[in-house]
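Practice record 12: protein with zinc ion.
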Amino acid sequence: MTHFTDMIDGYRRFRNGGWQQQRERWDELAVGQSPKVMVIACSDSRVEPSQIFDTNPGEIFVVRNVAALVPPFETTPGRHGVSAALEFAVQFLKVEEIVVMGHGLCGGCHAALHKSMEGAEPGRGGFIADWIAMLDEASEEVRNTHADLDTRDAGRAMEMAAVRVSIDNLRTFPCIQEKERRGTLTLRGAFFAISDGVLHLMDDATGDFSPA
Ligand SMILES: [Zn+2]
Protein backbone atom coordinates (compact mmCIF):
# COMPACT_ATOMS: atom_id res chain seq x y z
CA MET A 1 0.00 0.00 0.00
CA THR A 2 1.07 3.57 -0.65
CA HIS A 3 2.62 5.70 2.07
CA PHE A 4 3.69 9.32 1.86
CA THR A 5 7.28 8.42 0.90
CA ASP A 6 5.87 6.54 -2.12
CA MET A 7 3.81 9.62 -2.93
CA ILE A 8 6.99 11.73 -3.03
CA ASP A 9 8.33 9.28 -5.61
CA GLY A 10 5.07 9.85 -7.48
CA TYR A 11 5.53 13.60 -7.23
CA ARG A 12 9.00 13.28 -8.79
CA ARG A 13 7.52 11.28 -11.70
CA PHE A 14 4.82 13.94 -12.13
CA ARG A 15 7.32 16.80 -11.93
CA ASN A 16 9.58 15.20 -14.57
CA GLY A 17 6.74 13.91 -16.72
CA GLY A 18 3.25 15.42 -16.89
CA TRP A 19 4.23 18.78 -15.43
CA GLN A 20 7.09 19.24 -17.94
CA GLN A 21 4.92 18.15 -20.87
CA GLN A 22 2.16 20.56 -19.94
CA ARG A 23 4.28 23.60 -19.05
CA GLU A 24 2.09 25.90 -21.15
CA ARG A 25 -1.03 24.66 -19.43
CA TRP A 26 0.49 25.18 -15.99
CA ASP A 27 1.58 28.70 -16.99
CA GLU A 28 -2.05 29.44 -17.87
CA LEU A 29 -3.28 27.91 -14.62
CA ALA A 30 -0.87 30.09 -12.66
CA VAL A 31 -2.85 33.11 -13.88
CA GLY A 32 -6.17 31.73 -12.64
CA GLN A 33 -8.75 28.97 -12.80
CA SER A 34 -12.04 28.94 -14.68
CA PRO A 35 -13.59 25.50 -14.26
CA LYS A 36 -17.09 25.15 -15.69
CA VAL A 37 -18.11 22.24 -13.48
CA MET A 38 -18.19 21.72 -9.73
CA VAL A 39 -18.16 18.12 -8.50
CA ILE A 40 -19.30 17.08 -5.04
CA ALA A 41 -18.00 13.60 -4.31
CA CYS A 42 -17.30 11.28 -1.39
CA SER A 43 -13.92 11.27 0.37
CA ASP A 44 -13.73 7.52 -0.29
CA SER A 45 -10.29 6.71 -1.74
CA ARG A 46 -11.82 4.70 -4.57
CA VAL A 47 -13.84 7.47 -6.19
CA GLU A 48 -11.46 10.11 -7.51
CA PRO A 49 -13.46 12.49 -9.78
CA SER A 50 -10.55 13.61 -11.97
CA GLN A 51 -9.72 9.96 -12.66
CA ILE A 52 -13.31 8.85 -13.31
CA PHE A 53 -14.01 11.82 -15.61
CA ASP A 54 -10.48 11.86 -17.04
CA THR A 55 -10.08 15.59 -16.51
CA ASN A 56 -6.99 17.78 -16.38
CA PRO A 57 -5.96 20.23 -13.67
CA GLY A 58 -8.09 23.38 -13.79
CA GLU A 59 -11.13 21.65 -15.29
CA ILE A 60 -13.26 20.65 -12.30
CA PHE A 61 -13.75 22.33 -8.92
CA VAL A 62 -14.10 19.52 -6.39
CA VAL A 63 -15.45 19.20 -2.88
CA ARG A 64 -15.24 15.83 -1.20
CA ASN A 65 -16.73 14.80 2.12
CA VAL A 66 -18.31 11.81 3.84
CA ALA A 67 -21.02 10.45 1.50
CA ALA A 68 -20.85 13.38 -0.98
CA LEU A 69 -23.43 15.38 0.98
CA VAL A 70 -24.62 18.95 0.66
CA PRO A 71 -26.28 20.33 3.80
CA PRO A 72 -29.28 22.62 3.30
CA PHE A 73 -28.86 26.41 3.26
CA GLU A 74 -28.31 27.34 6.90
CA THR A 75 -27.33 30.62 8.53
CA THR A 76 -26.76 29.17 11.99
CA PRO A 77 -23.27 29.78 13.43
CA GLY A 78 -20.82 27.11 12.37
CA ARG A 79 -18.11 26.30 9.90
CA HIS A 80 -20.03 25.74 6.73
CA GLY A 81 -17.32 24.22 4.55
CA VAL A 82 -19.52 22.91 1.77
CA SER A 83 -21.55 26.13 1.66
CA ALA A 84 -18.35 28.20 1.43
CA ALA A 85 -17.08 26.08 -1.47
CA LEU A 86 -20.48 26.31 -3.17
CA GLU A 87 -20.54 30.06 -2.75
CA PHE A 88 -17.07 30.36 -4.27
CA ALA A 89 -17.85 28.06 -7.19
CA VAL A 90 -21.25 29.54 -8.00
CA GLN A 91 -20.79 33.24 -7.27
CA PHE A 92 -17.11 33.81 -8.04
CA LEU A 93 -16.02 31.08 -10.48
CA LYS A 94 -19.51 31.05 -12.00
CA VAL A 95 -19.56 27.33 -12.71
CA GLU A 96 -22.32 26.30 -15.11
CA GLU A 97 -22.93 22.82 -13.73
CA ILE A 98 -22.82 21.12 -10.33
CA VAL A 99 -22.51 17.34 -10.25
CA VAL A 100 -23.25 15.39 -7.09
CA MET A 101 -21.58 12.00 -7.46
CA GLY A 102 -22.54 9.29 -4.99
CA HIS A 103 -20.99 5.85 -5.18
CA GLY A 104 -21.47 2.16 -4.51
CA LEU A 105 -20.33 0.59 -1.22
CA CYS A 106 -20.33 4.00 0.48
CA GLY A 107 -19.42 3.71 4.17
CA GLY A 108 -21.25 6.92 5.08
CA CYS A 109 -24.46 5.72 3.45
CA HIS A 110 -24.05 2.32 5.08
CA ALA A 111 -23.83 4.03 8.49
CA ALA A 112 -26.91 6.13 7.68
CA LEU A 113 -28.90 3.07 6.66
CA HIS A 114 -27.85 0.96 9.64
CA LYS A 115 -27.71 3.86 12.13
CA SER A 116 -24.38 2.40 13.20
CA MET A 117 -22.91 5.67 14.53
CA GLU A 118 -25.98 6.76 16.45
CA GLY A 119 -25.20 7.99 19.96
CA ALA A 120 -21.43 8.07 19.41
CA GLU A 121 -19.37 10.82 21.05
CA PRO A 122 -17.74 13.53 18.93
CA GLY A 123 -14.37 12.16 17.88
CA ARG A 124 -15.60 8.58 18.20
CA GLY A 125 -18.13 8.59 15.42
CA GLY A 126 -20.28 11.44 16.67
CA PHE A 127 -19.22 13.85 13.95
CA ILE A 128 -20.12 11.23 11.34
CA ALA A 129 -23.46 10.56 13.07
CA ASP A 130 -24.29 14.27 13.09
CA TRP A 131 -23.21 14.71 9.45
CA ILE A 132 -25.18 11.75 8.06
CA ALA A 133 -28.24 12.66 10.14
CA MET A 134 -29.19 14.75 7.12
CA LEU A 135 -30.05 11.39 5.50
CA ASP A 136 -32.46 10.38 8.30
CA GLU A 137 -35.64 10.84 6.31
CA ALA A 138 -34.21 9.09 3.25
CA SER A 139 -32.81 6.19 5.26
CA GLU A 140 -36.14 5.77 7.04
CA GLU A 141 -37.78 5.32 3.67
CA VAL A 142 -35.21 2.76 2.53
CA ARG A 143 -35.65 0.85 5.80
CA ASN A 144 -39.42 0.84 5.28
CA THR A 145 -39.21 -0.45 1.72
CA HIS A 146 -36.44 -3.07 2.07
CA ALA A 147 -36.90 -6.16 4.22
CA ASP A 148 -33.19 -7.02 4.26
CA LEU A 149 -30.93 -4.01 4.73
CA ASP A 150 -27.80 -6.07 4.12
CA THR A 151 -28.57 -6.56 0.44
CA ARG A 152 -26.79 -4.52 -2.25
CA ASP A 153 -30.25 -3.49 -3.41
CA ALA A 154 -30.93 -1.71 -0.11
CA GLY A 155 -27.41 -0.28 -0.04
CA ARG A 156 -27.71 1.11 -3.53
CA ALA A 157 -31.19 2.53 -2.80
CA MET A 158 -29.65 4.43 0.14
CA GLU A 159 -26.67 5.63 -1.93
CA MET A 160 -28.91 6.91 -4.72
CA ALA A 161 -31.35 8.50 -2.25
CA ALA A 162 -28.39 10.39 -0.73
CA VAL A 163 -27.64 11.97 -4.12
CA ARG A 164 -31.27 13.09 -4.38
CA VAL A 165 -31.09 14.60 -0.87
CA SER A 166 -27.98 16.59 -1.83
CA ILE A 167 -29.59 17.81 -5.06
CA ASP A 168 -32.70 18.87 -3.10
CA ASN A 169 -30.51 20.63 -0.53
CA LEU A 170 -28.61 22.45 -3.30
CA ARG A 171 -31.96 23.90 -4.34
CA THR A 172 -32.42 25.49 -0.91
CA PHE A 173 -29.56 27.94 -1.67
CA PRO A 174 -31.03 31.22 -2.98
CA CYS A 175 -28.11 31.78 -5.40
CA ILE A 176 -28.63 28.32 -6.90
CA GLN A 177 -32.40 28.78 -7.19
CA GLU A 178 -31.86 32.05 -8.99
CA LYS A 179 -29.26 30.73 -11.42
CA GLU A 180 -31.28 27.62 -12.17
CA ARG A 181 -34.29 29.81 -12.92
CA ARG A 182 -32.22 31.96 -15.25
CA GLY A 183 -30.83 28.84 -16.94
CA THR A 184 -27.21 29.63 -16.11
CA LEU A 185 -26.70 26.69 -13.76
CA THR A 186 -27.60 23.00 -14.14
CA LEU A 187 -27.62 20.43 -11.33
CA ARG A 188 -26.77 16.82 -12.11
CA GLY A 189 -26.93 13.66 -10.02
CA ALA A 190 -24.52 10.82 -10.70
CA PHE A 191 -23.55 7.52 -9.13
CA PHE A 192 -20.35 5.57 -9.66
CA ALA A 193 -20.66 1.84 -9.04
CA ILE A 194 -17.28 0.74 -7.72
CA SER A 195 -17.87 -2.97 -8.36
CA ASP A 196 -18.21 -2.65 -12.13
CA GLY A 197 -16.84 0.85 -12.79
CA VAL A 198 -20.10 2.04 -14.38
CA LEU A 199 -21.25 5.65 -14.01
CA HIS A 200 -25.00 6.15 -13.69
CA LEU A 201 -26.75 9.46 -14.33
CA MET A 202 -29.84 10.69 -12.55
CA ASP A 203 -32.94 11.69 -14.48
CA ASP A 204 -33.81 15.04 -12.92
CA ALA A 205 -37.56 14.56 -13.44
CA THR A 206 -37.90 11.07 -11.95
CA GLY A 207 -34.81 10.80 -9.72
CA ASP A 208 -34.04 7.41 -11.32
CA PHE A 209 -30.54 6.44 -12.34
CA SER A 210 -29.39 4.75 -15.53
CA PRO A 211 -25.94 3.91 -16.96
CA ALA A 212 -24.22 6.78 -18.82
ZN1 LIG B 1 -18.67 7.16 0.28
